[in-house]
Amino acid sequence: MPVNGDSPLKRVLVTGGAGYIGSHVIYALQQTRRYKVISIDNNHNSSPKALERVTQIARSSLPANPSEKDKDSAEVDAHTCDLTNPHAVRKVFEQYGKAGIWGVIHIAAYKAVGESTEIPLTYYENNVSATISLLQIMSEFDCTRMVYSSSATVYGTPPVIPIPETTRLQAHSPYGKTKVMCETIIEDLCSAEPKRWRGLSLRYFNPGGAHPSGLIGEAPIGRPGNLFPLLAAIAVGRVENDLKVFGNDYPTPDGTCVRDYLHVLDLASGHLLALDALADDSTVFNNCPSEGRYKAYNLGKGKGMSVLQIVEAMRKATGFDYKYEIVGRRRGDVPDLTADPALAEKELGFKAAVDLDTMCRDLWNWQSQNPNGLSIMVRRTTSQSAPVASRAGSPSGEDFEEAPYFDSVDELQQHGINVQDILKLKTAAINTVSGVNMTTRRQMLKIKGMSEAKVEKIKEAAHKILGSSFATGLEVQEKRKRVLTISTGSKSVDTILGGGVMSQSITEVYGEFRTGKTQMAHTMSVVAQLPPDMGGASGKVAYIDTEGTFRPDRIRSIADRFGVNGDMALENILYGAFLTFDECRMLTYHRRSTSFHSEHQMELINECSSRFAEDKDFRLLIAILMTNQVQSDPGATMTFVAGGALKPIGGHILSHASATRMFLRKGRAEERVAKLVDSPDKPESEASYKLDEGGPCNNDRAYDACTASAYTIKVASSSDWCVGFRASLALSAWSHRNICVAMLKVMNVLVRRAMDVRFTLSVLNTCPDASAAHGMMADVVTSSAACASSGSSIQEDDTFVAAMGNMAVALVLVTIAFVARARASLVFSLPNTFPNISACISQPLTYSCENTSVIQNTCCSPTPGGLVLQTQYWDTYTGLEKKGQLLPKNSWTIHGLWPDNCDGSFDEYCDLSRQYDPDPSPAVLPDGTPVPAYKGPGVDIFVEEFGRLDLLSYMNKYWVSQGSPNADFWAHEFSKHATCTSTFDVTCYGSDYKKHQDVVNFFDAVVRAFHKYPTWDMLAASGIIPSNKTTYSLNQLQNALKAQTGSIPYLGCGFNGTVLQEVWYFNHVFGTEQFGQLKSVDSTTKSSCSSTLGIHYYERNPTSEHEVKLLP
Q: What are phi and psi of 671, to 5 degrees?
């Protein structure tokens, strides 16, 4: 069906939109706000994450209060399909109807010169045949404008340098020839139908660099084939430092090949100009020698640089010492390819303006932040609140850590295996080096085109990459530290498993019908998406169904139990139905393919064979749960038959493929029993659990999970009559335990006040054996009279029975109303250690500085005032570089978290018993009280005592002092500011308080607030990066930050307001400062930066020393 309505934006289709050039072209299109971008990409050598990031950049650059048109221009309609599949491409065009797409920028192509000489037919099919097919579909849908991405290789060995467009096309390599062919086809089509078709070919020279934000850049798979990305990959350590320079005997200044390099954003701007030239009112075609409206332009800088010059420029940008070897010339290379861009400059207005140093700097900025390309970005991000299942794979905690390596078969190219043989492996569904290692030589010889010599060479290369299978015990112990445990949904079952289903191994669960195998698989499909502190793994799930028992509705019910969004939970599940052995075998290959990515943390296999499970081609952190079915064996009647007289049916009980085996059996009613049968490190043991709408749970779930739908409120009379009511509130213990505690405490009070008679409110679970052994809840339930869990009753008349029934109804309604209020109240952000948690329910449900009533409980909300300033520095040196105290790359540093009384006033050093500052400033308070210097151990020791080495490491990197040890700076910030914030008062922690817990909580809160405001990234998203040459206006800086936060922070400048030095983000707080939510608001302090002069945002060098002197 065509897209409804006429878009106010011109729709432009970009093929290869997720690639390096394509993503930057999309960025350029989005910045105009004139186009609606449609992307087609098969993700063969790209990632859809590039489109997510370029959209992120586009959204961040929208003006305040953008129109719907502007918002639409920042989004991308992304389609994953291959141009060699005309049916799939036609379906894309059908979505927009006849003439629904205004023009096409055709970038998608294979592009490696050397590779094209080895597999020419593949290049002709992908580059030429696909282009013909695309043009035919465009014609069918009245889309007759094309900007074609050509290449300077069409010139072959040019007779004159620089190269004008009039040079004869005589490409040497198959790749270059595919470009010549496509240009010819487009030109012929424009000549044949001059009234319909318009076409421009852009002959790229050598693009480099990346978007200055570091969010998008070139991310080739395997060893890069082009010079710039290869040098970046070597510097970041992704490939070996074994650079080969092909020839030093060319007729060039230093004997190495010369190429014309231009920044990728300059190249992207050329596409915009070309697109404008295809408009009906364009004059570009007025001087065409023929009737056909077609032209070709060079996009280059007009200045050549040699290979060794590029190496030196990258050495300067990265600080890396490249080692290179001069080898013989490479077939297909030509000595010099420098553009003559005069025609493009004259007719299109094109100009490649970015210099080589900036190109190298932007490239290194991208590569250093993304060492593994788009698989994961090693940088800070704003924290996400639990328990909502995030879009897959966002690691929990404050930093992204580099994911375990997923050994793509493309890595073989670095060890001498040619691309053609790697493609043969992929055709046989061997997509990882581990897959090569586990495939026998005999099986590999069955692959078409594989000889014994090739197989031996490939095996040897795989062995080099994977290394020896032997490891020391200490190495194994280190690897085991990365084991994840994923909850089954029942804490009692988790306990016998040692915390849950573990990664790096296969867990087999077997049992008869209706023992909970499938329910456990469904439950873990949701749990695996939750953060680790909630029993999950922050990942996606692959659910492999061999019985057709997967039910999305069950996922939704379970998601409700854990308080997550059902749609999001389903989106994060990769489902596959494989009902036969052959399909299981094919799935073995499928799992190795690109559909199973490194972000998947859990694999669930419902009833499949041992041969399938024994394929251990899975990622290091993946946990595998397999279920198998058994039935009672009527022939095994003797009591001593091993295994409980059971035999396998739907699958095969796994041989030695499973590290852990658990047997499930039925108990009484809905009770189930799990028995740990086999484990390498756990004793044989049993646990009981229950199945309900939320999946497996404990029999004592009323106390453990605090799920109101499992409660029945009962009262009794002489006839043992009970009135039961259920309230479906779907509260989970992990996300709402605090509310449950407060709710039951308040209900207990309500009962005692409302009833003159002795009355028991029994919160009973429908599971048997509900126990009050859980001390946390035991004091919540009254124990005075009737209908306790034992079923005892008292003799009362019918009036009392009716009163009890009415009271039960009232309590259900109170519960519902209470929880609705509690979910939006301050109690939601407090830990159970707060002794007056229930009192927080009555606190104002507003942000600090916005409340109109007096805060009664100062532990629930910061007082007085509650305006909080998250402050950051931009320094260029620390003064302690020689001691290793350096500033972080591409990041501002933390100053602190300051309290303000909402009126510009503030207090300092409010509790001298918690004064840890060795050099207090001020040393005397306004009332004349001296602030004594602290002489004890540093606050870093406090952090170590709590085992928070992760926090300590982060603070040492991002909370950096100038001229003094970091710990002294942290102590100053806590003592001066945190002691004046009421929610950090020791009394608020109750009897469970541990000494210095408030200090660690403050440091956590500071880091959390710092994550909310990644200043370097936010400025870079608007193209504002440190520079010793460029200056920025105050409006530019403020608008860039407002685009990201929605409010204007305070910017502090020195040197007469011309040097940017600090930023303060103003916030109101909902709840406590350490656990609550921050809302960004406009600064109440006027900026000290000049509103008329340019403002310097200076660079740092690798040792964080300032490179230029500050201007007076």
A: -75, 145
